[in-house]
Amino acid sequence: MILVCLGATAAQAILGASFRVSRDRGRFFESELGPLITATVHPSAILRSDDRAGEMGAFIADLRLAAEKLDELRGRG
């Protein structure tokens, strides 16, 4: 299981106030809430961005990274 937090508010609630999506996205953290936790931007941030295509690409890349890590955990990677 991997918990993916969408946005800084969700990530900071689980990982602590020092978490920064811009710095920490794509990294995996251990927690008592789940084997691994990661975070990406909130989808609404993509809509507010001047570079929607770039932000959407980065969002998809973050989700793919989580999917690949999940495959590794399941022994499929």
Q: Order of helices and strands, N to C?
A: EHHEEHH
Radius of gyration: 13 Å
* Count of β-strands: 3
Terminal-residue CA separation: 15 Å
At CATH level 2, the architecture is: 3-Layer(aba) Sandwich
Q: Assess the beta-strand content as a share of residues.
A: 15-25%
Instruction: Give the averaged pLDDT, no decimals.
Output: 94
| Broad CATH class | Alpha Beta
> How helical, in percent, are the residues?
40-55%
Q: Which strand order do you get reading across the main beta sheet?
A: 1-3-2
Total domains: 1
Low-confidence stretches: none
User: Helical element count?
Assistant: 4
Structural class: alpha+beta
Largest sheet: 3 strands, mixed
Rough shape?
flat
**CATH-defined fold name:** Uracil-DNA Glycosylase, subunit E
Describe this structure in words.
This protein has 77 residues and is of the alpha+beta class. It has a single domain, classed as Uracil-DNA Glycosylase, subunit E (3-Layer(aba) Sandwich). It contains four helices and three strands; from the N terminus they run E-H-H-E-E-H-H. It has helices spanning 8-15, 21-24, 43-48, 52-73; strands spanning 2-6, 29-31, 34-40. It has a three-stranded mixed β-sheet. Strand 2 and strand 3 (34-40) form a beta hairpin. The longest helix is centred in the C-terminal third of the chain and has 22 residues, at 52-73. The two termini are 15 Å apart.
